Write the structure tokens for this entry.
Amino acid sequence: MAANSRNELASEFKGVIKLRERIRVEAVDFIIAVMPTTRMKKVAALLRSKYGNDVVLLTELALDIHKFQYNGLDREAFSAVIWI
């Protein structure tokens, strides 16, 4: 989705990123290729007008799953859940 919306994203992610001594890429291309988790919410918000609200909800879900995989089970939050 992000690659198909490069023009929309280019207005927000301006500039050049230096990868190596002589390798430079536009920031928007770097964001699309690597999609850092720190930028996912912003990209999803920008794509909402083109793809709908589902892109934001799916991004939130992906970030929650990523957080769970990275941090594991949150013992305090798990024990606070009330089962009905």
